[in-house]
Design goal:
Helices cover 41% and strands 9% of the residues. It is built from 19 helices and 11 strands. A 5-stranded parallel sheet has the order 2-5-1-6-7, with helices on one face. The chain has a 4-stranded mixed sheet with strand order 8-9-10-11, covered by helices on one side. A two-stranded antiparallel sheet has the order 3-4. This is Nodulation protein NodH.
């Protein structure tokens, strides 16, 4: 490592996001003899580079148990000033350690978010994430999805605000660099000077990596005119102020669902009865599920509210035990649509969840199901306490945190409960002048083994430890079996 008496910094973090040019910037930094950037060291699914599970003698499992061990090893075993790339969904504990540290330099790489979004969609279509030979370039055109883009942008801006505040309250500044500046050797050398006195200047920018999608946006987006119109309607100021961290979360406006004609607005909580309530809204207006209104932006939701006087919004609470089990079955146990495959693999390899290699088969017993679900609850306990490298996903964030996030833009008029939906929905309908309504949805499960078949007091105790905030905030009792 560089001589601490002469170097300004002991290490650096390159804060970026996917498809912002971070690979290319890292490649340039590694051309400077006094710097060493070691990739995504704290990506939840690998260490440094894809398919690697060890770096500096620290395994992925050991890193997740103690991220400081990898930071220490990196500093000890690097000649020059070491660093790594960090994205918004990397281990939050590392963010909390590095941002307040004045001996850790911060580099912030940004790119036009529309370009990043389009590039990300193309990379997913082609499965080409790096390009070193232009003859191997794969091309694709994508359709711009306004709601998906708004969620994408909200995540980026929320993280940038969090980083900005962390620097402000500790009296620090970062070196900001834009995607378009990575080819500028003078800017790169300025970054080198910022990072350390031992850094030797570059004579030219690296040409090893090639730009993958050089065509203009209109050639890469099928519905280019629709994209331009959608971008013009977005409330940029509101998006820039959306928080996104446990226990604070963003309002996730694109997920809201309105009835086709009635002034009813559903604010979904992931892991709850989202699809059944959406179908109920359609049935209330004698319409089809495709007729409900979705994919709101903050601007279009304001317009809907102005056009629907006397509107009522509502959310539905689900018992934490039933919600955790539903999330486990929908996102972790399965390998089909809706599965979090990377997280699933991390839970198997790092957290020792006894999950099958693929989807559960005929040999998947209630005993195996209970053991895996118990392991998932144990993971959630650590995850919600900020003790894992895996993101706190909205599907298993506390319902209290989700509702707090909603309140930053649209507070629900009523909080209904899944086990008393018939009564709750009747009261809701009455408030908008309704006299009749379709039957309320029945509680549902999607897993291969019902919660009834595995539930016991030990699981209830563990679930209460995981979701103590929800149990206290909403007065949940022990989960009741359906046959009681």
């Amino acid at each position: 490592m560089a001589d601490a008496a002469r170097a300004r910094f002991d290490m650096f973090v390159l804060f970026a996001e996917m498809r912002t040019g971070s690979n290319y910037l890292e490649d340039n930094l590694n051309q400077m003899p006094g710097l060493a950037c070691h990739g995504e060291l704290f990506n939840p699914h690998f260490v440094g580079q894809h398919n690697r599970d060890e770096k500096f003698g620290v395994s992925l499992r050991d890193r997740d148990a103690n991220p400081d061990a990898l930071l220490t090893a990196m500093r000890a075993e690097t000649t020059g000033v070491p660093g790594f790339r960090y994205f918004h969904d990397h281990d939050a504990r590392v963010f909390d350690r590095c941002v307040p540290d004045p001996r850790c330099a911060k580099v912030v790489l940004t790119r036009n978010p529309v370009d990043s979004y389009v590039s990300l969609r193309i990379a997913r279509e082609t499965n080409q994430w790096r390009l070193t030979n232009v003859t191997h370039r794969k091309e694709a055109r994508i359709r711009f999805d306004p709601a998906e883009f708004e969620r994408f942008l909200a995540r980026i801006q929320a993280f940038q605000l969090r980083l900005q505040r962390g620097l402000q309250i500790t009296g620090q500044t970062a070196f900001h660099i834009h995607y378009d500046d990575i080819n500028d050797v003078e800017v790169l050398n300025g970054l080198g000077q910022f990072l350390g006195a031992d850094v030797a200047p570059l004579e030219r920018a690296s040409n090893r990596l090639k730009r993958q999608n050089p065509a203009p946006l209109e050639d890469k987006v099928e519905n280019y005119e629709e994209m331009i119109a959608a971008l013009a309607e977005m409330d940029g100021f509101g998006l820039f102020r959306t928080p996104n961290a446990e226990p604070r979360r963003g309002p996730v406006v694109p997920s809201y669902v309105a009835a086709p004609r009635a002034p009813l607005l559903f604010l979904p909580i992931k892991g709850g009865p989202v699809a059944p309530i959406s179908d109920w809204l359609a049935a209330y207006d004698d319409a089809t599920p495709d007729d409900v209104l979705r994919d709101f932006t903050q601007k279009s939701l304001r317009q809907w509210k102005r056009q629907n006087k006397g509107h009522r919004s509502f959310a539905v609470l689900r018992h934490p035990m039933a919600r955790a089990h539903e999330v486990f079955c929908r996102h972790v146990l399965t390998t089909g649509p809706g599965a979090y495959l990377e997280i699933r693999e991390t839970l198997r390899r790092v957290h020792d969840l006894p999950l099958p290699d693929g989807a559960p088969g005929d040999d998947w017993t209630a005993a195996r199901h209970r053991a895996a679900f118990e392991g998932f609850l144990g993971f959630l306990k650590a995850n919600l306490a900020g003790q894992t490298a895996v993101r706190i996903d909205p599907a298993w964030a506390t319902q209290a945190a989700v509702l707090e996030g909603m309140s930053t833009f649209a507070q629900p008029d009523m909080l209904l409960r899944e086990d008393t939906l018939q009564t709750g929905l009747a009261q809701l309908v009455q408030q908008v002048g309704g006299t009749t309504m379709p039957p309320a949805p029945e509680p549902f499960e999607t897993g291969p083994i019902a919660l009834d078949a595995i539930y016991d007091g030990e699981l209830e105790k563990l679930c209460r430890e995981v979701y103590a905030r929800d149990y206290m905030q909403f007065g949940f009792r022990v989960w009741a079996r359906r046959d009681k």
